[in-house]
Amino acid sequence: VALAVADYASPLRLSLDAAALVSNWRWLAKESGEASCGAAIKADGYGLGAKAVLTHLTKAGCRDFFVATWAEAKALGDLPKGVSLSVLHGVREEDMAVALSMPHRPVLNSLPQVKRWLQTGRNFDLMIDTGMCRLGVNIADIWSNKFEGMPIHTVMSHLASADENSEQNVSQRVLLQGQILKLKAQRYSLANSAGILLGPDYHFDLTRPGIALYGGVPREEAKGHIAQVVYPEAQILQRRLLIKGQPIGYNAIHIADRHTEVAILNIGYADGILRAFSKKGSANNGQFPFLGRVSMDLIAIDVSSNPELEEGDWVTIDYNLSAASCKTGLSPYELLTGLGPRFDRVWINAV
Ligand SMILES: *Cc1c(COP(=O)(O)O)cnc(C)c1O
User: What are the start-end ranges of the H helices in 191-349?
Assistant: First the structure.
C-alpha cells in the first residue's frame, strides 16, 4: 500500500503566524502614508509559501503583489478579483506563451523586452535603473527612445542601499522623480521594506515591502514594530546521555565537559538550518544549545535543563531573524529563503 504523503505528518514544521504577517503589513501600510502598500512574494513568499501569503494579505487589503518569474506566477493559479500581480524579471522569448495565458503584467527591464511585449498590445510595468545597475532600462535610453503613448501601468526603480543612510538613496530618488514628467504612467514606485522607512519622499504611489512582512527588521526605525512570523519546529528522534569526555557529531568538534542529556532533532542543513548555526544555534529561547556540527538531516541539542523531554516531543528552533543573522552572518533573506520543502507549513493565528 502506497503511503499517502498528504496524510503523513513530517517530523519538522514551520509554524507561520498569520496574525503577525498581517500586523507587519498593516504597519508598513501605515508607514507608507498616502501610497498603496504591496507585497513581494517572490521565492515562494520568501520561503513561507506564496499562495498562503497572498491569501492572508489579500484579506487584509493588499492589492499589489510581485513575483520574480512566470513559473512563480503560474504556481499561484487564479487570483482573487482586483488583485494585481507583476513579474519582476520581465519577459524572455521563452516566457511569451505562458505570459499571454495569464492576465499579469511583466516588469520590463530592457529595450529588447519592451520591443517583445509591445507586439501584444497589453500594458506593462517598467523598471528603470537609477543606480543599482542590476535590472532596468537606463535613463539615457528613456530619453533617446519614444516611450510616449506606451501602455505603461507602473514605473518602478529599486533602491540599492535603503538599509543604510547613504547618499545613494537621495540620488536614486531624485533620478526617479526626474522621470515623472518624461515618462507617463499610472503610478510610480521606489521603496522596498527599508525604503519605506526613509520617509514620505520615497513612497511615491506604491511601496513594495518583502522582508519586513516576514519578520525582518530592515532599519532601526522598524524595531519593536515588526513581529516574528516564522518558527521552525522539529521533533526529537532520539534521546541519549553523553558521558563526560565523549565527542558528538561530525569531526567531534564538541567533546562533553560533563555528563550531558542530549536530544537528536529531525532537522538539518538540508532544511535550511545551515552549518553556520553549529555551536551557535539553540532551541526553546536559548534553553537548549546546539551541540557540535549541524548535519544534513540532524541537529543535536543539550537538554540537560529539561531531562524529561522524550522521543517524539517537539522543540522550537530559535529563529528571530535579527538575532540569528547576528550569530551566523547569514542575512535575514538567506535565513528565510533557504527553508526547505521537508517542512510542513502550518499557519496559526488566522485573522
Ligand atoms: C525583492 C524586491 C523587493 C522587496 O525587497 P525587500 O528588501 O525584501 O523589502 C522590492 N522590489 C523589488 C524590485 C524586489 O526585487
Answer: 193-196, 321-328, 332-337
